[in-house]
Amino acid sequence: MNLYEKKRRWKFLLLAFAVLIAATSLWYTKYLVKNISINERTRAEVWAMTIKNIAEMPDINDEFITYISAVRDSLTLPAMIVSSTGSIIMHRGLDNTKTPNEFETDKKYDPKYFRNQLKEMKNQHPDPIVINLARNSGKWLVYYKDTPLLTQLRIFPYIQLTVIAVFLLLAYLVFSSARRSEQNQVWVGMAKETAHQLGTPISSMMAWIELIKSKFEADHDPLILEMENDIKRLEMVADRFSKIGSKPILQSNIVYRVIKDYADYFRVRTSDKIELKVTGDKSVEALMNVPLFDWVLENLLKNAVNAIEGPGLIELKVTENLVKEQVFIDICDTGKGIPKPRHETIFQPGYTTRKRGWGLGLSLSKRIIENYHKGQIFVKESESGKGTVIRIIIKSSLTYVPTTT
Questions:
Q1: Which of 43, 49, 265, 341 to pair with 298, CA 20 to 30 A apart?
Q2: What is the structure's pLDDT at 314?
């Protein structure tokens, strides 16, 4: 298991743990809400029974009436008693500015307010408390609303989880930004130090080549010419590393020619069993930094070669989208392909399928294309056993003016 897969597994485990905590919190809150709701319904039933007793037993002694009234008045949740015909008989805990006192039946009240309150009670508790009256004189329906405490308890866990999620997201973004900044500083420092360390041996090798050419009169020797090409490549590599961390200079170049030059260099340094060809538009231009773009091609072609087991084909196609002023560069190979779930993963730092790989090539390529060339790089298509197409999109340096008809 490589480093990236380990990190991804840890992320899934932490996410699962967070979901478990959230689910437990919601379950426990639901448990509390259920118990409190049962308690409130019991209190509403007791209140309704006290009203019934007062109405049906007017001859009971004063002490018992005082006791029942105290029980009745202990109810704090809003409630209504409605007759079977729908008329409101009694109410409790409503806005006293819009309702009459329980014993002031002649006082004006707000009918709309009552209707709205009754509708809200029915929505919260559609199954009312039914009280059958004595002597077959009908029945009462008791409706009630949840107390503010129960209402707040219902929504509190969602508010709490939302606040925690926002806090964790902000903390993650801050720490990720700080970590990326630190990684960038380390990356830039290592790159510049590498360029500095390569400078001295490259200069020395160039001097030795010139000495060999003059001493043995080997100016046109093919081996010496290839050695010079390799030294020039080393110079370019050092130049690439020196550019990390600084804004690269983009110049207009013919895309086909840049790709063809690098393909010619790469072709003689890979297996003869692999055919490498460049096709497409030979005139389209784009703003590019050639040393950095060659670095991208190098990483993509090396990965394509490693994906091909035996004879195969690597084709680089250059096309232009005139409408969007974009240049498409497709790197097609006949290798073993990339599983669909890993189409995004392959560009992550540390991801590699090779035992000795660092998993930085494609990540670096993505950085060069997206950050420096303001373009895109992605897996356009891939099928197991049939190959892969990776597409690069960069802006064309020519302005397209549509013709009018």
A1: 341
A2: 94
